Amino acid sequence: MAGVFSLVLVIAATVFLVVAAGVVYSSIRYRSRGLGAPEPKQIFGSRKLEVVWTVVPLLIVTGLFIVTVRAMVLIDAPQNSTHPPELVIIGHQWWWEARYPDGVVATGDIHIPASRRLLARIESADVIHDFWAPDLARKMDAVPGRWSYIWLEADTPGTYAGTCSEFCGAQHAWMRFRVVAETEPSFEAWLQRQAQPSLAPRGIAVEGARLFQTRKCGDCHAVTAAGAVSPAKGPNLAHLASREFLGSGISRNTPESLMLWLTNPQAAKPGNRMPDTKLSANEARALLAYLESLQ
Amino acid sequence: MSDWLCAIDHKRVGILYMLSALLFFLAGGMEAMVMRAQLAAPGLKLITPEIYNQMFTMHGTTMIFLVAMPILTGFGVYLVPLMIGANEMALPRLGALSFWLQFLGGVLLYLSFATGAAPDAGWFSYAPLTEKAFSPGAGLDYWALALLMITGGSVGSAINLIVTIATQRAPGMTMRLVPLFVWMTLVASIMIVFALPALAASLVMLLSDRLLHARFFDPAQGGAPLLWQHYFWIFGHPEVYIVVLPAFGMISEVIPVFSRKPIFGYPFVATSTVAIAFLSYGVWAHHMFAVALGRNFLAIFSAASMLIAVPTGMKIFSWVATMWGGSIRFTTAMLFAVAFLLEFTVGGLSGVAFATVPVDWQMTDTYFVVAHIHYVLFGGTVFAVLAGVHYWFPKLSGRLLDEKLGRWSFWLIVLGFNTAFFVQHFLGLLGMPRRVYTYPNLPWFGALNVISTVGAAILVFGILLFCANIAMSFFFGVTSGDDPWNAWTLEWAAASPPAIENFAEIPTVRSRRPLWDQKHPEAPDWSEA
Amino acid sequence: MRRAQLGMAMFLIAQAVFFFLLILACVYFHALPRLYVPSGSILTALLLAGSVCIWRKWRWGAIAFGAVFLVGLAGTPFAMLTAILGLFVLAGVIALAVVPVSGLRALSLYWYFFTAVWLIIFGIAGQV
């Protein structure tokens, strides 16, 4: 891909320099000698020159087209293969959900094994989004009602940023995600840990867990990753306490930010779909403790 | 006042278009400055996300439909009869109606602000975001209705221009002898007739979905969101050529006069325009490369999109060749025309980058495309119009624009424009998507954005200086006379400003440069082989 | 008036593109207007009669047939496509009443065009 872009850049720079040279040279060399200057030779055209500057660009774009098609074939995943995807990625207003073949669901951080090409299916639960992890894959629009496939591949382990790249409403700006690429054993371990529920809550977190059900939080948010309903109405909160970011990147995962989500979701991410919870201060504290126990 | 409200004389209607376009240009510019202020640093909260989304929607809609199209229509309506030796447009009442439809459509669009619900889904408003379920406010209804009115106005004025050019030419002026501005206006007008109805159909279907419970675009009910995209871009891509071809026509008038040479290769410039018109209907899906439409389908549109660069590039070379060997006078008009050559080339080349599908698969919907569109639409159309204004202002008003003020505004605009938009190529390459009300504090994001904002501020200042020039020169400018530039096309034979009946006697023409023939009886154009 | 006819031809090209795209979308979604064949046939006959009147340059006959068509159309179940066509026919009927004789040539093109559009809608609707 970098090769294709470099080629385009070289072609563009060359053409621009040719045009600029013509403009600059003419501007200096053929500057008028003053208002009384005689009219220059009236030239109407040159068929030869016209042919040259039609054929040469035509050859250039033909070459570029061949390079383009070759690259497309290399980059693009098959859209109707029988091979099941290794990852299903679903865009929602305004968060991403990743579903693994064993039933684990992750939100926000998507872990993958590095050094392997993965087939990912891109879906949308509502409007058109676009999954864009610049270092790892081509962009792909997530169109509701359609399934689209991409190759997702990290050459080396690391954390790679990504974002939604198709305007999808109020919080399109904060529909970011991270892809964490790990070595194969590391990835397997992560997958196993995801599938386990968090340790049982203690102290006021127990009250928090109870409130989570009675106050209907569980209607939208699952707290286990394994076998969760997908697509879900709200982001999966399994292992929430071990996340670095909240709200698809809008804030860091601190007690203050989490408390804001509990007490005033619209202030945490204006326009998002979480209804006002109307929690009392005590209820909020209990729920906060519970959420923080979700390691 | 009622002279103007009830005007049907093409010169009055033309000026109404120009004034309307200027008004909306300032509105669209303010929307842009609000956005650039909000983006000056990461995490700013100058405006809410909802307001930001309304700003970029109104900015795009305003600039395309209420500025670019009307200003070019205005110049067309004003100049075409003068250039073809006619005293009036063929269908004057249709011409006036078309202006008012466009203007009142714009008023309706801006009324949406007063209701607190301006449209906020982008100037190309993709479904299903635009369905009532996801956009319950009335903003998009205003948007669709206003655009339907504006569409009616565009088609009306296009019809008027086509019929005028077809039936009102002076004796001897065959279609092969018309000034290139007339030719390009004709081609653009024919394109309007074939493209704008696609927008109208899309808007009717959107309104049906939103107000009549139809389900054209709603996937939850069996509709197809992609249908909107196909139909919209079947309009949308020809549209961008519609707003650039008449601008090309202006450049084709300005560069020859200030190089003191005829346009290089008139037949090729004219024919390549027709090629562009046809090809433009076959490239629409390049706006949809990020959708899984099928590799062969995408490859065809990639090929067509690369192909269309050839007739476009041909024109750039022709304009440079016109300058070559000339005797170039750098009036402000010529400065803008030469700047156009460089800016539009940059924009055209970044367009070729997008035709290269794998590059598009990274760069579409980022600031790289924002840079591209502004280089072609601002560096292209607006710069060409600025050249045209400086060139034809004497004809419209009888006075010259101030050259000193012109130069100052030129350099500020060039500096501001390039500072604001060149860095956006890099922002896109670094991963900043478009249409975001803010961004994370990633390396270089803040720095490049603040540079872009400063550039935009300089650009605004340059534009204001230009407006001041217009206002001052209109009242106090030096008298220009009929033909201040020693030009060659028929409009310069009329008075400045022209009498209500443009020509006391309709001239007979024998070449593309009737006034050259008159001024050079020893070497008229028609004696060339 | 060559000018009026050329202008009308351009206008009708634009309408042809508009209706083509709308009809295409309706066919794709099997959402063409549901027209009960007998009443649909009567409406078709009315429009055709109007066309004959225009052809014979009998303006008020066309206006009469057009008006009855519109009343009849208003009685059919609402469909976006026929509603839009109805609006164009209404505009045509009003134009017929007010336009001077010199505009009749151009207006006749308009009338034939929308009769044809109706025939296409009704014809395809019958098949799909």
Structure write-up:
The complex is a heterotrimer of chains A (295), B (529) and C (128). Chain A has seven helices and twelve strands. Chain A is α+β, with helices and mostly antiparallel strands. Chain A folds into three domains: 2-30 and 41-75, no CATH class; 87-195, Cupredoxins -  blue copper proteins (Immunoglobulin-like); 204-292, Sandwich (Immunoglobulin-like). In chain A, α1 (2-29) runs antiparallel to α2. Chain A starts with a helix and ends with a helix. Chain B is mainly α. Chain B is built from 17 helices and no strands. In chain B, α11 (309-323) packs antiparallel against α12 (332-355) and α14 (367-397) runs antiparallel to α15 (403-429). Chain B is globular and about 70 Å long. Chain C is mostly helical. Chain C has a single domain (2-127), classed as Up-down Bundle (Four Helix Bundle (Hemerythrin (Met), subunit A)), CATH 1.20.120. In chain C, 83% of the residues lie in helices and 0% in strands. In chain C, α2 (37-55) packs antiparallel against α5 (104-127) and α4 (80-98) packs antiparallel against α5 (104-127). Chain C starts with a helix and ends with a helix. The chains are: A alpha+beta (295), B mainly alpha (529), C mainly alpha (128). At the A-B interface, α1, α2 and β9 of A face α3, α9, α10, α11 and α12 of B.
Fold blueprint:
The complex is a heterotrimer of chains A (295), B (529) and C (128).
Chain A: H1 2-29, H2 47-75, E1 87-92, E2 95-99, E3 105-107, E4 109-113, E5 118-124, E6 129-132, E7 140-142, E8 148-152, E9 158-164, E10 176-182, H3 184-195, H4 204-214, E11 245-246, E12 251-252, H5 255-263, H6 265-268, H7 281-292
Parallel strand pairs in A: 1-5, 4-10
Antiparallel strand pairs in A: 1-2, 2-3, 5-8, 6-7, 6-9, 9-10, 11-12
Helix pairs in contact in A: 1-2, 4-7, 5-7
Chain B: H1 2-5, H2 10-38, H3 49-84, H4 92-114, H5 139-167, H6 180-212, H7 225-242, H8 245-259, H9 266-280, H10 295-307, H11 309-323, H12 332-355, H13 357-363, H14 367-397, H15 403-429, H16 445-476, H17 514-519
Helix pairs in contact in B: 2-3, 2-4, 2-16, 3-4, 3-5, 4-5, 5-6, 6-7, 6-8, 6-9, 8-11, 8-12, 8-14, 9-11, 11-12, 12-14, 12-15, 14-15, 15-16
Chain C: H1 2-28, H2 37-55, H3 59-75, H4 80-98, H5 104-127
Helix pairs in contact in C: 1-5, 2-3, 2-5, 3-4, 4-5
